[in-house]
Design brief:
226 residues, five-stranded parallel β-sheet, two-stranded antiparallel sheet, 7 strands, 46% helix, 14% strand
C-alpha cells in the first residue's frame, strides 16, 4: 500500500511503497525523486568543478572540450585530432594568440588521467618564487610528476638564468621519467631555443612526439565582434 510523504525540499506530496523488509521498518523518505535527482546533479557538478580546479584549468576554460572547439582551418582540425586522440604522446602547439591552443590544452587536461595538470608558465614560475617565502602552492612539484602536464604560453615569461634553470629542471625530469608534455606557445621554435636554451627545447622535442603550427582566426576577437 502506497504511503503519502511530503518532500522536505519542495513541499510536494509524493507516493512511497514501504518495504516489507524488517530491516527498514518505519523508514519514510524525506525527499521526492525530482529533488533527489537535482541534489545528485548538484553534487556531480560541484565535484567536477573541484576536479577542474585541482587540475589547474582556469575558470575561463571550465567548459572547454573537444566537442566545443570550433576548427576553422586544416591545422586547427589536426590540432584537435592530436590533442583528442594522442595527447599521451606529447604535443606542441605553436601559433598566434587566439587560435585555440589553450582551449585544446585545457580540454586534454580535463579528460586526462588523475593528477593531470594545466599550468601557465609564468604562473608556475611565480609560484616557485613565492614558495621561497612559504607562500607557494607547490605547483612545480606537481608539474614534475603529473602524468600529463600542459605548459601553457611557454616563452612569454621574462627570461633569466634562473628561469632557464627551472625550466630545464622541469623538462629534464619529465624527459628522464618518460612523462608526456603538452606545450602551447606563440614563439617559433628557433626563437624559443634562443630564449630558453637549446637543452630545454631539445628535451621538449623529446617529450612531444608531435609538433604543429596552428593557424586560424583569433577566436577572442570573433567573440568580441559578435
Amino acid at each position: 500500500m502506497s504511503v503519502t510523504c511530503v518532500c522536505r525540499e519542495c513541499g510536494a506530496e509524493f507516493g512511497y511503497e514501504p518495504s516489507a523488509s524488517p530491516l527498514v521498518v518505519g523508514f519514510r523518505p524525506q525527499i521526492c525523486n525530482g529533488c533527489a535527482a537535482a541534489a545528485d546533479a548538484e553534487r556531480i557538478a560541484l565535484a567536477a568543478d573541484a576536479e577542474r580546479a585541482l587540475r589547474g584549468v582556469p575558470p575561463r576554460y571550465e567548459g572547454a572540450s573537444f566537442a566545443s572547439f570550433a576548427a576553422h582551418t586544416p591545422s586547427q582540425r589536426l590540432a584537435l585530432e592530436l590533442l583528442r586522440d594522442r595527447a599521451g604522446e606529447g604535443v606542441m602547439l605553436i601559433g598566434d594568440a587566439g587560435c585555440g591552443k589553450t582551449h585544446l590544452a585545457c580540454a586534454a587536461i580535463s579528460v586526462g588521467p588523475p593528477g593531470s595538470l594545466f599550468a601557465n608558465t609564468t604562473t608556475l614560475l611565480d609560484d616557485v618564487r613565492r614558495g621561497f617565502g612559504g607562500e607557494g602552492q607547490g605547483l612545480f612539484a606537481r608539474a614534475l610528476s603529473a602524468p600529463l602536464l600542459a605548459l601553457d604560453d611557454l616563452g612569454s615569461e621574462a627570461v633569466t638564468d634562473w628561469v632557464r634553470d627551472r625550466l630545464y629542471a622541469l623538462i629534464n625530469h619529465r624527459w628522464d621519467h618518460c612523462l608526456p608534455l603538452l606545450v602551447t606557445t606563440n614563439v617559433l621554435a628557433a626563437d624559443l631555443a634562443e630564449r630558453i636554451g637549446q637543452g630545454v627545447t631539445s628535451r621538449i622535442a623529446g617529450c612531444c612526439a608531435h609538433r604543429i603550427r596552428v593557424q586560424g582566426p583569433d577566436g577572442r576577437r570573433r567573440r568580441a565582434e559578435t
